Amino acid sequence: MWRPLLLMCLVAAVIVLSYVFGIGERLAALRDWIHSLGALGPVVFVLLYAGATVAALPGLAMTIAAGAIFGSVAGVIVVSIGSTIGASLAFLVSRYFARDATAKWLSSRETFKKLDDLTKKHGAIMVAIVRLVPLFPFNLVNYGFGLTNVRFWTYVLWSWLCMLPGTVLYVVGTDAAIQAIVDKKVPWILVGIVIGTSILLVALVRFARKRLHEEKKGETHEDAPVRVRR
Predict the structure, then answer these.
(1) Nearest to 179 by CA among 53, 92, 75, 81
(2) Residue 129 neighbours by CB under 8 Å, 6+ apart
């Protein structure tokens, strides 16, 4: 699977960049600022994450930052809430407030046309698959689904559920890497969670693909012409 490999590459990149550009110091400053807000700190981070998602900015950097700032448990919670709120707002903007502009932005993209066609036929299972597997860019998906026929709450529920494994993988993986660097010992519990989540993610992807294949196969049989015996 691509996510565990990407996670290892990102952790390595963070370590290198922290020495080259002093990112570690900036991250520490951001962490101190968030913590200085007290109970409002997680709320502010959620709002920042949601705003970045609506603005179509890459959310992976903030996901990794959440693991460094809040740790595993709180980090997963704030990222899960922020990403779901942001994805939901982008959906609503696309469907009700900027439909023409969004349609014009996406109409020339072949990936959106494919997404629209698959969503019309498969609904919830398609939402699940595009959240589990990077078939389409994350920001395109958020706005693209608003132009499809999928129901809002179906989109919200399946987006939240199927983004959660990836959130756990990146946040806990970041927390594990930081603890290993700072404490100079491997946090085996967190490593076990990362491995378990990776296995779960692979299983979910295979199940979703199998389900989509079965639905497509069923449609093929239904559309096949009926032969009349003579």
Answers:
(1) 75
(2) 135, 205, 208, 209, 212
Phi-psi region of 150 (alpha: psi -120 to 50; beta: other; left: phi over 0): beta
The number of beta carbons lying within 10 Å of the beta carbon of residue 207 is 12
Give per-residue pLDDT as tens, 92-118.
988 887 766 666 666 655 656 666 666
Token pair, residue 121, equals 């036929």
DSSP label of 228: P
**26 CB-side CA count, 13 A:** 9
Query: Which tens digit of pLDDT belongs to each residue from 23-55?
Result: 556 667 778 888 898 889 999 999 999 999 998
Residue 58, Ramachandran bin (φ over 0: left; ψ between -120 and 50: alpha; else beta): beta
pTM for the full predicted model: 0.78
- H/E stretch holding 213 reads helix 188-223
Q: How far apart are CA 129 and CA 203, in angstroms?
A: 12
Among 138, 132, 142, 130, which Cα is nearest to 197's? 132
Burial class (CB in 10 A: 0-12, 13-18, 19+), 12: exposed
Q: CA-to-CA distance for 183 and 202, rounded, in angstroms?
A: 31
Spatial neighbors of 97 by CB under 8 A, at least 6 apart, are none
CB 79 within 8 A of CB 167: yes
